[in-house]
Design a protein that fits this description.
about 160 residues, Nucleoside Triphosphate Pyrophosphohydrolase, 6-stranded mixed sheet, two-stranded antiparallel ribbon, about 35% strand
């Protein structure tokens, strides 16, 4: 079985001299009560034949409702516990975290073995976090993206 691949963006801003990053909380029943370690960069799987950066741009549009701004910072890739490889880029953004999210949804049989299918939002909320807090909130494998961003901005 081929491993899955995703591509996404880590948006950042500076507030009162401090670096903050925008993270997305996944929707649906599995994450409803999870906080620390559950957040992620906005990301998604590329369409067949789609380049990774193009997929990352499309996913940011579809999931958050904004466009990345140049210059872009390549953050490389990580392999998450489930085997998915996530490729990431970063860019500065003034995206309004309180803006309504696009209506991207997925279907799931819920409750399990009930025979009923329900729709859930792919992302139920986004928020900017200072780096120290983001380190606790983000998926463990994606923490390296925060470190790589800080290193790139110091260079």
């Amino acid at each position: 079985m081929a491993s899955r691949v995703s591509a996404g963006f880590l948006l950042y801003r500076r507030r009162a001299g401090a670096l903050e990053v925008l993270l997305a909380h996944p929707g649906g029943p599995f994450y409803a009560r999870r906080d620390e370690g559950a957040w992620s960069i906005p990301k998604g799987e590329p369409e067949p034949g789609e380049e990774l950066l193009a997929a990352a741009r499309r996913e940011l549009r579809e999931e958050i409702g904004c466009e990345p701004r140049e210059p872009l910072i390549a953050l490389g890739s990580v392999v998450q516990r489930g085997g998915k490889t996530v490729h990431a880029w970063a860019c500065e953004s003034d995206h309004d975290e309180g803006a309504p999210l696009p209506a991207s949804t997925f279907e799931l049989e819920w409750p399990p073995r009930s025979g009923r299918r329900r729709s859930f939002p792919e992302i139920d909320r986004v928020a900017y976090f200072p780096i120290a807090e983001a380190q606790r909130k983000i998926n463990e494998a994606q923490r390296v993206f925060l470190t790589r961003l800080e290193e790139a901005l110091r260079a």
